[in-house]
Amino acid sequence: MNDATRPPRLETRGTSIGYDGRLVCEDLSVAIPDGSFTAIIGPNGCGKSTLLRALARVLRPSLGKVLLDGTAIHTQPSKEVARRIGLLPQTSLAPDGIRVADLVARGRSPYQSLFHQWRASDEAAVRAALDVTRVGDLSGRLVDELSGGQRQRVWIAMLLAQETPIMLLDEPTSFLDIAHQYDLLELLRSFNDDGKTVVTVLHDLNQAARYASHLIVMHDGQVVCSGPPADIVTAELVESVFGLRALVVPDPVTTTPSVVPLDPRGGGRVGSLASPSIRKD
């Protein structure tokens, strides 16, 4: 779990990030609490995924630094970084005809070299990742044959087989139905409970507030605020960042902040979270 006394292993300092000649984030100084479950949230296009990709060493900042264990991440050898940080991108494409066990085994590539080929420790890591993510019975199946929820678990098994202390995931619940979304978040929380630092981009503010111990709220390429959900999720924040008038009340199950939109037609009524009201004539 998060220990506020430990210095962050992963952070940005005065970092400006962009791509294709366009600046997306400017002068970001963000620290990921070590041992935390951190969720990066904000409206579409605010720079959430850009920040995550910079933290993962996929994007090189035009200004400032991304630091891993106190050293600029881009000065460190790729394999050394890959032994400490694992990334699940927003879109992952498996090679045609690859089976589940073979895809998960690719998580061991940072540990392979000309002098160190496949070893018993690699086999054990893959087997453990398959078991923990509950896809061991699918190990012989083609990845292309799996459902969306099964495929996402396989990708996370590959990430877990990498055995990194820091896991970065970009919108891992996208395209999953509601039951699989919560199932996946429970799995990520179990990784955090086991001591891993988990950083994920999420769209659902209520899911982020329920599962994350630390939130980073972004808007227009800037960090608006960060901290524990109970400290920063307010009706004022939701309206200013997301443009949504809402009540923030305790979740009846977890007591974490829960956002309930107000009826956009006025009158102070609470609207439905699931769907707009249907008028019957």
UniProtKB/TrEMBL annotation:
SMART domains: AAA. This is ABC transporter ATP-binding protein. It comes from Propioniciclava soli. GO terms for molecular function: ATP binding. It is found in: Cell membrane. PANTHER family: FE(3+) DICITRATE TRANSPORT ATP-BINDING PROTEIN FECE-RELATED (PTHR42771:SF12), IRON(3+)-HYDROXAMATE IMPORT ATP-BINDING PROTEIN FHUC (PTHR42771). Residues 258-281 are annotated as: Disordered. Residues 10-245 form the ABC transporter domain. Gene3D superfamilies: P-loop containing nucleotide triphosphate hydrolases (3.40.50.300). It is a peripheral membrane protein. Pfam families: ABC_tran. Keywords: ATP-binding, Cell membrane, Ion transport, Iron, Iron transport, Membrane, Nucleotide-binding, Transport. InterPro entries: AAA+_ATPase, ABC_transporter-like_ATP-bd, ABC_transporter-like_CS, P-loop_NTPase, Siderophore_ABC-ATPase. It comes from the Bacteria. Its main location: membrane. The lineage of its organism: Bacteria, Bacillati, Actinomycetota, Actinomycetes, Propionibacteriales.
